[in-house]
Amino acid sequence: MPLVDPSHPLAELLERDGRYSLDAYLFILESLSFAQDSLGMGECQQVGSKRKSKKKSERHVSGQELCEAARRYAQQQYGYLAATVLSSWGVRETADFGEIVFNMIEVGQMRKTSRDRREDFHDVYAFDEAFARDLVFAVPDAC
Fold first, then answer.
1. What pTM did the predictor assign?
2. d(CA 34, CA 61)
3. Do the beta carbons of residue 45 and residue 58 sit within 8 Å?
4. Which residues of the chain are under the pLDDT cut of 70?
5. What integer pLDDT is reported at residue 54 of this predicted model?
6. CB neighbours of residue 69 within 10 Å
């Protein structure tokens, strides 16, 4: 398991809530990047200071979008073992993604809008079916 600098906010989070491993938190951050950068998910929002020149655009991904991005990213990274890998980190249902996100919001590692709720992550899909969907098995060409 990767070590965390004790002064990092995730260290406090791991100490306070032992349900999920550090890998689960890192996976959600990577899934968010995957959603925005690879899948083009999220609606643009203005963030920044009150001065108009300092505002920048940021893409906000909904709970349901993040769940779908996490499913696809897990399949890409872990293939058929995706559900098993996530389970080893304490993640067994989409509601766990929401718990991880809201834990990170509490320690300032993610942001939310006034519309975001934990319930947005509940029952988005069933793990036992979702990670088998869209799997592609490639057989190497014979020489």
1. 0.81
2. 11
3. yes
4. 1-2, 43-58, 135-138, 143
5. 45
6. 24
**pLDDT, tens only, 12-22:** 899 999 999 99
Are residues 31 and 73 in contact, defined by beta-carbon separation less than 8 angstroms?
yes
pLDDT digits (tens, 9 = 90+) for 92-120: 999 999 999 999 999 999 999 999 999 99
Residue 103 and residue 64: Cα distance in Å, rounded? 17
d(CA 131, CA 109): 27
Following DSSP, what letter does each residue of 73-104 receive, concatenated? HHHHHHGGGHHHHHHHTT--SHHHHHHHHHHH
Tokens, residue 1:
């398991």
Kindly report the length of the chain: 143
CA distance 74 to 87: 12
Residue 51 per-residue DSSP state:
S
CA 127, CA 113: separation in Å to the nearest integer? 27
Task: Provide the strand spans (E) within 1-143.
Answer: 43-47, 56-60
Residues in CB range of 13: below 8 A, 6 or more apart: 25, 103, 104, 106, 107, 109
